[in-house]
Structure formats: structure tokens, C-alpha cells
């Protein structure tokens, strides 16, 4: 913005932004106060201003003693107004551990361990997401605290039990095999769709792992797989005389989160193929080819994800390879269980 080099105008609006970078998010924070001014109450506008002041101080890489004093003052001013505004709406009266830690301990932490920029989000937020948010969203929400406290945490990889092998072929003969399967009247649209994208996505997967040669590679395609938590992932043309391609919930990788529209950081997809990829002198790769519901990444509509666990309709917009050792929501095409 001319005359104000620290401010940025989003001339094309925000709807066209597929992915908001951290820098753009900070630029948005600077100008948003002028957007909400006059639309919201003075107190809400003021608490937002105080949040921004506190946030900018928290991003300092080096703190002097005077900076810490300013930071603590900014925290106290923001927290006092925040509690006044939202205490009545909080069942716990704003008695949150993270809130308390921020107000009373963050400055001491900086004095002891230096700047917080970097480790706070990467450590505590990621652990909270992995061990609290994601398991809660994928549960039935009943007696969740008791279940999480008493739940056994598995430190070893989830055991995979493949059942109902459907096909097996050499990778070098895959194109011929898929062409022959086009005449198979028993195949459903989902499996045909999976065959159409199989080689393209597998090639991307090999590129990611720097696998140059796939000579003597064999492919097995299964109808289902049982996980150690007893959930069953299915991708079969006929199960009890009906096609069944399981829906799954995927907790998005933080690095990719802003590329996708998500339901509180969780996306949904439908399984197309369940495969075992066998290369000589390597451990097998257990992969599932899935299709997103509703949307795709404008930057990379076909890409790979690794060790990550989308409102549902029948719109098919993109495929990705996904390791099957994840949290799975098993259900038929018509609903969730």
C-alpha cells in the first residue's frame, strides 16, 4: 500500500486464494481491524487490536528485558479484556491450561529457553492434534475422556491383515492388464477409476522415494484389509452382493493444510484400490489409492501423502496415494458407521 509499506491490500479478494501463507496471514491480521471496525462492538475490535500487538511481540527472535516487560504488559491487557468478554460463555470460566500457561509462564519460559517462535506451535500444537483432536473427531464422542485415559497406545506399527486378493500382476504388464479389465462387466466405476489413475500415482510415489528402477515389481490388489483396531477397509466390487468402497477420514498434514478445504483440519475420501507393491530387496509398500470428496488442490491435484490420517458427495476431483496405517472411518457409500 503506497505510503504504508507494512500494509498489503488483497486486490483480488480472499476467495481466490487457495492457500494462505503465514506471511499473508500476518498481512491479513494487520488490515482486518479496519474491516471489522464499526461492524463489531468497540470491545471486540479492541480485543482484536490487543491480540495483534501481543502476537507481533511474541514473534521476536531476540528479547531484551524491556521487550519482555512490554510483552507481559501486552499479554495482561489482552487477557483481561478477553476474559471480561468471553467468561460468561465459557463453562469453565476461562480456566484453560494453555490460557493460564500463556499468561503466567510464557515470559519465564522465554527467559529460560529464549524465543518461543518456532517450537511452541511445532511441538505442543502437533502433539495436541495427534493425541487429542484427531482421536476425538474420529470417535463416537461417548465417554471420550475415560476412553482416552485408559486406551492402550501402540508403539509398534499397526498390524495389517489383507484378505480377499482380487488381482496380481507384474508392473511391466499393468497397462495390458488394465486394458483387459475394461471388458470385465463385474467391475464398478470406482475400481475402473482407480485403474485409470494407478500408474500415474504410483509413478509419483516412486519419484518421491527416489525409486529409479521398478524391474520385477509385482502388484497385488485386495478387496479388504483388517487393521489392528478391528476396523476393516474395503474396496471391492461385491461384498454381500453390493459394491463397497470405504469412506475414510484423514487428519491433514500441517504442511499441506492450507492447500485443502477441510472440516476442522480433517478431510474425507473414498477408497478406490487397496494394494501391496512388492519390489525386490525392499519391504512391501502397503498403499491405498483414494479420491477426495468435494474438492482438490489447485496446485497439486494428484500427489502423495505419507503417514497422515474431506462434507461428502459424489463429486470426484482428485486422487492421491495414502498409506493405509491410519485412523479409518468404515462405512458404506451411503453413510458412516
Automatic annotation (TrEMBL):
This is Uncharacterized protein. The lineage of its organism: Eukaryota, Fungi, Fungi incertae sedis, Mucoromycota, Glomeromycotina. It comes from the Eukaryota.
